[in-house]
Amino acid sequence: MKKILGMLGGMGPSATADAFSKLISHTDAKNDQEHIPVIIASIPDIPDRTENIIYNGPSPLPAMIASLKILESAGVSCIIMPCNTAHFWYEDLIKETQVHFISIINAACNKIFKDNVKEVALLATTATIQTRLYQNKLSLHGVECIEPDEINQYKIMQSIIAYKSGDFNKSKELIYPYINKLRSIGVNKFVMGCTEIPLILEELSRDYPEQFIDATEALINEAIDWYGYSDEIKEAGANQLS
Protein backbone atom coordinates (compact mmCIF):
# COMPACT_ATOMS: atom_id res chain seq x y z
CA MET A 1 0.00 0.00 0.00
CA LYS A 2 1.21 3.51 -0.81
CA LYS A 3 2.23 5.85 1.98
CA ILE A 4 -0.47 8.35 2.97
CA LEU A 5 0.14 11.92 4.03
CA GLY A 6 -2.08 13.28 6.80
CA MET A 7 -2.87 16.98 7.14
CA LEU A 8 -3.94 18.27 10.56
CA GLY A 9 -5.80 21.34 9.36
CA GLY A 10 -8.63 23.71 10.11
CA MET A 11 -6.33 26.41 11.52
CA GLY A 12 -7.73 28.07 9.44
CA PRO A 13 -9.62 26.35 6.61
CA SER A 14 -8.24 28.68 3.90
CA ALA A 15 -4.69 27.94 5.03
CA THR A 16 -5.45 24.22 4.92
CA ALA A 17 -6.83 24.56 1.39
CA ASP A 18 -3.72 26.52 0.40
CA ALA A 19 -1.46 23.76 1.72
CA PHE A 20 -3.42 21.13 -0.20
CA SER A 21 -3.34 23.25 -3.36
CA LYS A 22 0.43 23.61 -3.04
CA LEU A 23 0.80 19.86 -2.51
CA ILE A 24 -1.01 19.30 -5.81
CA SER A 25 0.80 22.02 -7.77
CA HIS A 26 4.27 21.08 -6.48
CA THR A 27 3.86 17.37 -7.22
CA ASP A 28 5.15 16.44 -10.66
CA ALA A 29 2.21 14.18 -11.48
CA LYS A 30 1.05 13.35 -15.01
CA ASN A 31 -2.32 11.90 -14.00
CA ASP A 32 -4.61 11.42 -10.99
CA GLN A 33 -2.93 8.21 -9.91
CA GLU A 34 0.51 9.81 -9.62
CA HIS A 35 -0.56 12.32 -6.97
CA ILE A 36 0.33 11.82 -3.31
CA PRO A 37 -2.42 10.17 -1.25
CA VAL A 38 -3.55 12.57 1.45
CA ILE A 39 -6.16 12.56 4.20
CA ILE A 40 -7.16 15.95 5.62
CA ALA A 41 -8.70 16.51 9.03
CA SER A 42 -9.97 20.09 8.82
CA ILE A 43 -12.01 20.53 11.99
CA PRO A 44 -12.06 24.29 12.58
CA ASP A 45 -13.54 24.31 16.08
CA ILE A 46 -10.02 23.93 17.50
CA PRO A 47 -9.73 26.86 19.97
CA ASP A 48 -7.72 29.85 18.79
CA ARG A 49 -4.02 29.40 19.41
CA THR A 50 -3.16 33.06 19.94
CA GLU A 51 -6.10 33.52 22.32
CA ASN A 52 -4.71 30.74 24.49
CA ILE A 53 -1.07 31.85 24.47
CA ILE A 54 -1.62 35.60 24.88
CA TYR A 55 -4.93 35.81 26.75
CA ASN A 56 -5.09 32.44 28.54
CA GLY A 57 -8.08 31.29 26.49
CA PRO A 58 -9.12 27.63 26.09
CA SER A 59 -6.28 25.28 25.20
CA PRO A 60 -6.37 23.97 21.62
CA LEU A 61 -4.23 20.95 22.53
CA PRO A 62 -7.04 18.44 23.30
CA ALA A 63 -8.80 19.24 20.01
CA MET A 64 -5.53 19.02 18.08
CA ILE A 65 -4.83 15.64 19.67
CA ALA A 66 -8.33 14.49 18.66
CA SER A 67 -7.63 15.46 15.03
CA LEU A 68 -4.25 13.76 15.29
CA LYS A 69 -5.93 10.54 16.41
CA ILE A 70 -8.40 10.73 13.51
CA LEU A 71 -5.48 10.82 11.08
CA GLU A 72 -3.61 8.11 12.93
CA SER A 73 -6.69 5.85 12.91
CA ALA A 74 -7.08 6.47 9.17
CA GLY A 75 -3.65 4.96 8.61
CA VAL A 76 -1.54 7.97 7.61
CA SER A 77 2.22 7.50 7.42
CA CYS A 78 3.25 11.11 8.04
CA ILE A 79 1.52 14.20 9.44
CA ILE A 80 1.88 17.88 8.60
CA MET A 81 0.10 20.76 10.32
CA PRO A 82 -0.27 23.96 8.25
CA CYS A 83 -0.40 26.38 11.18
CA ASN A 84 2.72 28.03 12.57
CA THR A 85 1.38 29.09 15.97
CA ALA A 86 0.05 25.57 16.62
CA HIS A 87 3.67 24.40 16.62
CA PHE A 88 3.97 25.86 20.11
CA TRP A 89 2.45 22.45 21.01
CA TYR A 90 4.57 20.46 18.54
CA GLU A 91 6.51 18.59 21.23
CA ASP A 92 3.26 17.72 23.03
CA LEU A 93 1.73 16.42 19.80
CA ILE A 94 4.64 14.23 18.76
CA LYS A 95 4.47 12.53 22.16
CA GLU A 96 0.92 11.44 21.28
CA THR A 97 1.79 9.55 18.10
CA GLN A 98 4.32 7.19 16.55
CA VAL A 99 3.61 8.66 13.12
CA HIS A 100 6.33 10.83 11.56
CA PHE A 101 5.41 14.51 12.05
CA ILE A 102 7.10 17.24 9.98
CA SER A 103 7.44 20.68 11.62
CA ILE A 104 6.55 23.75 9.54
CA ILE A 105 8.96 25.80 11.66
CA ASN A 106 11.85 23.43 10.95
CA ALA A 107 10.92 23.29 7.27
CA ALA A 108 10.94 27.09 6.88
CA CYS A 109 14.16 27.46 8.86
CA ASN A 110 15.82 24.72 6.80
CA LYS A 111 14.91 26.69 3.67
CA ILE A 112 16.48 29.83 5.15
CA PHE A 113 19.67 27.97 6.11
CA LYS A 114 19.90 26.24 2.73
CA ASP A 115 19.62 29.58 0.93
CA ASN A 116 22.30 31.06 3.21
CA VAL A 117 20.04 33.94 4.23
CA LYS A 118 21.49 36.02 7.08
CA GLU A 119 18.65 38.45 7.82
CA VAL A 120 14.87 38.00 7.65
CA ALA A 121 11.82 39.98 8.71
CA LEU A 122 9.28 37.77 10.44
CA LEU A 123 5.59 38.20 9.59
CA ALA A 124 3.54 36.09 12.00
CA THR A 125 0.89 36.06 14.69
CA THR A 126 1.63 37.80 17.97
CA ALA A 127 1.76 34.40 19.67
CA THR A 128 4.32 33.06 17.22
CA ILE A 129 6.42 36.19 17.75
CA GLN A 130 6.18 36.09 21.55
CA THR A 131 6.91 32.37 21.87
CA ARG A 132 10.01 32.81 19.66
CA LEU A 133 9.25 29.74 17.57
CA TYR A 134 11.39 31.13 14.75
CA GLN A 135 13.81 33.45 16.50
CA ASN A 136 15.36 30.80 18.73
CA LYS A 137 16.06 28.42 15.84
CA LEU A 138 17.32 31.14 13.52
CA SER A 139 19.68 32.64 16.10
CA LEU A 140 21.42 29.28 16.54
CA HIS A 141 22.54 29.59 12.91
CA GLY A 142 23.46 33.26 13.08
CA VAL A 143 20.37 34.50 11.24
CA GLU A 144 19.13 37.92 12.38
CA CYS A 145 15.36 38.03 12.76
CA ILE A 146 13.65 41.42 12.51
CA GLU A 147 10.51 41.59 14.65
CA PRO A 148 7.77 44.19 14.16
CA ASP A 149 7.36 46.90 16.77
CA GLU A 150 4.22 46.79 18.89
CA ILE A 151 2.12 48.99 16.60
CA ASN A 152 3.02 47.13 13.41
CA GLN A 153 2.61 43.74 15.09
CA TYR A 154 -0.91 44.80 16.09
CA LYS A 155 -1.63 45.71 12.47
CA ILE A 156 -0.23 42.37 11.21
CA MET A 157 -2.43 40.52 13.68
CA GLN A 158 -5.46 42.54 12.59
CA SER A 159 -4.57 41.77 8.98
CA ILE A 160 -4.65 38.04 9.73
CA ILE A 161 -7.96 38.39 11.57
CA ALA A 162 -9.41 40.43 8.69
CA TYR A 163 -8.43 37.75 6.19
CA LYS A 164 -9.98 35.02 8.31
CA SER A 165 -13.20 37.06 8.47
CA GLY A 166 -13.32 37.46 4.70
CA ASP A 167 -12.25 41.12 4.52
CA PHE A 168 -9.44 40.57 2.05
CA ASN A 169 -8.92 44.22 1.07
CA LYS A 170 -8.57 45.31 4.69
CA SER A 171 -6.08 42.51 5.34
CA LYS A 172 -3.81 43.91 2.60
CA GLU A 173 -4.25 47.53 3.66
CA LEU A 174 -3.09 46.68 7.18
CA ILE A 175 0.09 44.77 6.31
CA TYR A 176 1.40 46.35 3.10
CA PRO A 177 2.68 49.63 4.65
CA TYR A 178 4.94 47.77 7.09
CA ILE A 179 6.43 45.63 4.32
CA ASN A 180 6.97 48.68 2.12
CA LYS A 181 8.64 50.50 5.01
CA LEU A 182 11.11 47.66 5.57
CA ARG A 183 11.83 47.33 1.86
CA SER A 184 12.57 51.06 1.70
CA ILE A 185 15.39 50.62 4.24
CA GLY A 186 16.89 47.61 2.48
CA VAL A 187 15.19 44.62 4.06
CA ASN A 188 14.64 42.11 1.27
CA LYS A 189 13.74 38.81 2.89
CA PHE A 190 10.41 38.19 4.60
CA VAL A 191 9.31 34.99 6.33
CA MET A 192 5.59 34.43 5.87
CA GLY A 193 5.35 32.70 9.24
CA CYS A 194 1.57 32.48 9.46
CA THR A 195 -0.29 30.29 6.99
CA GLU A 196 -2.77 33.08 6.16
CA ILE A 197 -0.01 35.50 5.17
CA PRO A 198 0.90 33.78 1.86
CA LEU A 199 -2.77 34.24 0.95
CA ILE A 200 -2.79 37.91 1.99
CA LEU A 201 0.46 38.57 0.12
CA GLU A 202 -0.29 36.33 -2.86
CA GLU A 203 0.20 39.04 -5.52
CA LEU A 204 3.21 40.65 -3.85
CA SER A 205 5.05 37.37 -3.32
CA ARG A 206 4.25 36.30 -6.88
CA ASP A 207 5.76 39.54 -8.23
CA TYR A 208 8.82 39.35 -5.95
CA PRO A 209 9.29 35.62 -5.20
CA GLU A 210 12.93 36.07 -4.24
CA GLN A 211 11.90 38.29 -1.30
CA PHE A 212 9.35 36.01 0.38
CA ILE A 213 9.89 32.73 2.19
CA ASP A 214 6.61 30.82 2.35
CA ALA A 215 6.55 28.52 5.39
CA THR A 216 3.62 26.58 3.93
CA GLU A 217 5.51 25.94 0.70
CA ALA A 218 8.60 24.85 2.65
CA LEU A 219 6.46 22.41 4.62
CA ILE A 220 4.89 20.99 1.47
CA ASN A 221 8.28 20.56 -0.20
CA GLU A 222 9.56 18.61 2.80
CA ALA A 223 6.41 16.45 2.74
CA ILE A 224 6.99 15.68 -0.95
CA ASP A 225 10.63 14.81 -0.17
CA TRP A 226 9.46 12.55 2.68
CA TYR A 227 7.11 10.76 0.30
CA GLY A 228 10.00 9.96 -2.00
CA TYR A 229 7.89 11.01 -4.95
CA SER A 230 10.38 10.15 -7.69
CA ASP A 231 10.89 6.64 -6.34
CA GLU A 232 7.13 6.08 -6.08
CA ILE A 233 6.60 7.16 -9.70
CA LYS A 234 9.42 4.94 -10.93
CA GLU A 235 7.90 2.01 -9.07
CA ALA A 236 4.44 2.73 -10.50
CA GLY A 237 5.89 2.93 -14.00
CA ALA A 238 7.72 -0.36 -13.56
CA ASN A 239 4.52 -2.04 -12.38
CA GLN A 240 2.66 -0.80 -15.45
CA LEU A 241 5.33 -2.23 -17.74
CA SER A 242 5.48 -5.61 -16.02
UniProtKB/TrEMBL annotation:
KW Isomerase (keyword) present: yes
UniProt keyword annotations, A-Z: Isomerase
Matches recorded under SUPFAM superfamilies: Aspartate/glutamate racemase (SSF53681)
Xref: InterPro entries: Asp/Glu/hydantoin_racemase, Asp/Glu_race, Asp_race
Gene Ontology molecular function: amino-acid racemase activity
Top-level taxon in the UniProt lineage: Bacteria
Family: Belongs to the aspartate/glutamate racemases family.
Stored NCBIfam families: asp_race (TIGR00035)
UniProt name for this protein: Aspartate/glutamate racemase family protein
Species: Providencia rettgeri
